[in-house]
Amino acid sequence: MNDHQTLASALRLADAPISASEAHGIITGALCVNQHDESGHWLKLILGSSDAQQLKAHGPLVKQLVSAYTRARESLNDADFSHQLLLPGHAAGLGSRVEALADWSRGFLLGLMENGLQQPAALPGDAGEFMGDLMAISEVTPDDDEDGEDQEKSLAELTEYVRIGVRLVYEELNPAVSGQTTPTRH
User: Fold this and answer.
1) Helix spans in 34-147 (H)
2) How does the average pLDDT of the chain come out, rounded?
3) CATH architecture of 3-178
4) What is the sign of the dihedral through the CA atoms of 111, 140, 152 and 103?
5) In this structure, are residues 23 and 68 in contact, taking their beta carbons and an 8 Å threshold?
6) CA–CA gap between residue 105 and residue 155 (Å, rounded)
7) Taking the C-alpha atoms of 57, 115, 119 and 86 in order, what is their torsion angle to the nearest 10 degrees?
8) Stretch 62-89: mean pLDDT, rounded?
């Protein structure tokens, strides 16, 4: 099982009303705003609660989510920016993967906004332009009229665009990564 399938299964077992892709988007957005969040606010966004008893009841899921959080933080800080979006593989089908990208994008926006970035599109330059695009991507649906091969290519390009856009946002909000001296908060 890949990471997406493992997290998706754990979320289903816990009856969580969120997809694995959206959960990963929330984690990534939260990390872009606050690399040192020890409060677990991101976990509350995913599970709907941070109550100790509920977290204990969802122990295996919490463990998976914490692992995803740790891996995402490491990959965002990696000099080579190895961060990847947590999306289903090709076996899931094109429609499911398009929906997962939209879910991931919605989660990322939620993670940013619920962790202090009230107006993501107000980020300067390319990061702000990307945030405007991401809002549209969060509502994307498969195009039944387009050729499957063309849709596959479009999805791959869009996924890479989102991945690189995340880097722009991360660097804007974490100036030490890009060599800036002061962070920009909006």
Assistant:
1) 41-47, 52-57, 59-77, 94-113, 125-137
2) 86
3) Up-down Bundle (1.20)
4) positive
5) yes
6) 13
7) -60
8) 92
In the chain, what is the straight-line distance between the N-terminal and C-terminal CA atoms, in Å?
39
Q: What is the pLDDT of residue 145?
A: 66
Q: What is the Cα–Cα distance from 8 to 88, expressed in whole angstroms?
A: 9
Q: Which two tokens stand for residue 76?
A: 């965002």
Sequence-ordered list of residues with C-beta below 8 angstroms from that of 101, at least 6 positions apart, any chain: 21, 85, 87, 137, 140, 155, 158, 159, 162
Q: Is the dihedral of CA 122, 114, 21, 7 positive or negative?
A: positive
**Residues 86 and 8 sit within 8 Å (Cβ to Cβ):** no
Q: Which amino acid is at 94?
A: L
* CA 169 to chain CA mean position, Å: 12
Q: Where are the domains of the chain?
A: 3-178
Least confident of 108-122, 150-164, 165-179: 165-179
Dist. CA 8–CA 24, nearest whole Å: 11
Instruction: State residue 67's pLDDT score.
Output: 92
Average pLDDT over residues 166-184: 74
Asked if residues 172 and 184 have their Cβ atoms less than 8 Å apart, the reply is yes
